[in-house]
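Sequence only, no structure available. Ideas?
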Amino acid sequence: MKWAPLVIYAKWSKVESEFGDDYSFLLLIGNIVYGVAAIDSVSQTQSISDGKTLVSKGGVFELGFFSLGSTTKRYLGIWYKNIPIDGVVWVANRANPINDSSGILTFTSTGNLELRQNDSVVWSTTYQKQAQNPVAQILDSGNLVIRNEGDTNPDMYLWQSFDYPSDTLLPGMKLGWDLRTGLERKLTSWTSPDDPSLGNFSWGLMLYSYPEFYVMKGTQKYYRTGPWNGLQFSGVSDQIQNQNAMFVSNDEELFYSYTLINNSVTVKVKIINASFQTHVWEKEKEKWRVNIITPGDFCDMYGLCGANAVCSITDSRVCQCLEGFSPKSQQEWNTSNWRQGCIQNEPFHCKDRDVFVKYVGMKVPETTHTWVDENINLDECRARCSNNCSCMAFTNSDIRGAGSGCVLWFGELFDVKESQTGGQDLYIRMSGSEFEQDGHNKSVTIIIATTIAATGAIILFCIFVICRVRRNNAESKVKDNIESQLGDLDLPLFDLLTITTATNNFSLNNKIGQGGFGQVYKGKLADGRDIAVKRLSRGSGQGITEFITEVKLIAKLQHRNLVKLLGCCFQGDEKLLIYEFMVNGSLDSIIFDQVKGKFLDWPQRFHIIFGIARGLVYLHQDSRLRIIHRDLKASNVLLDEKLNPKISDFGMARTFGGEQTEGNTNRIVGTYGYMAPEYAVDGLFSIKSDVFSFGILLLEIICGNKNRALCHGNETLNLVGYAWTLWKEQNALQLIDSSIKDSCVIQEVRRCIHVSLLCVQQYPEDRPTMTSVIQMLGSEMEMVEPKEPGFFPKRISDEENSSSNPNQMTSNDKLTITSLDGR
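Reply:
I predicted one. Tokens follow.
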């Protein structure tokens, strides 16, 4: 049955000669049969031409010719049969597309599979084994295999596409090396979504003594996973869900692979520019959900902290020297240029005179210079390292159970990271004399600190007793007032002692931010949860208003792109809001930082843009009350461990009921640089005010610059004015941040710039809604031309220009307005 169409075509001339014009009826039958009985293989005497396909037996994958986007170039590849978007998983002729539909896949007389365009060979296979009646077959795993007819043993395949991956790792594929043949299996990114030719980034395995995977940008290391420690890769916090992962290392092969526990779920891993991403197909929504993105935070940037330092995204200073080491250049270190790393304070004395400091939950150092013995335990490993004066660190090679095996590091320790989930124990050498001196200093410090703390506690207690009686009445009134306004929100109330303990009494070392009405601190509760505590300024009349507003609003909001309120605390003068802690901090701390900004590539920025837009759609349309944020800006967008954006700070928000869509106020609040003109001048606000702010934020994400004044020719422009000038000159792509030029998708960036200019138009009625914004960002729909933006460039006179520095840049977006009189 499956060969029926081929039989019909093979005997075509005979049919035509016998039946004349009536053969068209038989052609129709042949085509129907071909469609019903899809074939999964071809033999040496058959071929596949453009327009014909092979379909795996279970109907999972399909092989044939395809084009991408608007191009007419044709590629031979494999894609998911029943997934309509982004389904291509393998391409044969990545670097050599066919210009028309003349391509044909056929076997040569010697048994090799060959892709031809007319008389030219576009792509072909070669075998190590002898071909006898070869058959090419597409399997339900997505693997195109060539085997001798009748031989179904996978070990006897003549050739398979799984040995030559494109940009996608499917379940059952091997990523690594066949040491017998020297075959390397690695993923390489596409140049763009419409061009599958080899991109700049690849993901492959380095054959060190302790092997590990790297994402490479050309020949430069960009990110490393850390070595396999028996459970996972040392530096990868999130593992693929619903998977059985394995790493095989023996004399014949060295590879990573995974299979699915639940085969009804469709999962693939792709390298897209600088990151590899786990995609899960959501059948009901008919879309791919990005489940994991790796690298996941800026500490994953290769070599960010240099040698002998550790990177931690939870510390206020990202890079810290290891114990016993100091910055090689203190001046560079103070400017957050850490790549020169750290050097030893004291030389090692070797053997029993040195100590080993235990670091917990670490991505272990780069394994270029390591020694491995899988047959000794940790105590023997420590002895080996201690007796070798060049050994810098050691750990178990396998951390399963009680741990086993031994890894020693020699030379500088490079690219060490503190892992949030995962990682392993690492023992790092420290000079014995340094340790003794450090221990003595710590003891003295502890004694002094304890004495001061005890004395201070007694004094504070006396003051507390005297003042408490006087404050009780006032405190009770404030508390009753707040409680009456908050009503029954079913929100946990934290006591002040719990929060002061969690934040180390609001230590400056715990401070992570500053808002218009107070400061933000990181804390850790007794149960281990990390929290962010917003401490409203004492004595601020506005503070109580914003406190009540924020609690009322955000306690009722539940959306993945809004920060979650865990509880609140009001006691005496203290008014505290307790939020979930966002590991990667605020968006502005990354996109406006020259070092951290390089980590945030375009796919991640585009992901953040969509998340912010979804959060605003919820506020404007899907929540119980229509909510206007009124202070949307980069510092009020927080990023979690997976770089998902969450809108925060609702102290200035206003709610609308029913069909109300706009309002006005004499008390204008917000931040210069993000305010819509009708709000800044006349106090008029609406959902279109937030749209304007979103447009500014969108430009900042693309450009990596704040919306501040800058010089362009003989005009002083803010970012909006500069973008508008470039748009009119048809040079808008000059706006792109240099750190994302290698990773950006030009069509997406151009569309985002277009949308941003639509959002910042002068008049609210011209601006789109956030629902329309999402539709424009996520499709190829036509968009109207933007009109002039809300704030115009100011022309500089020759006198002004001669008396000022033409390179001076002045900021206009850090000032938070608390009160203005609207006209």
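Residues 38-164 form a domain with the Agglutinin, subunit A fold (CATH 2.90.10.10).
Hope that gets you unstuck.
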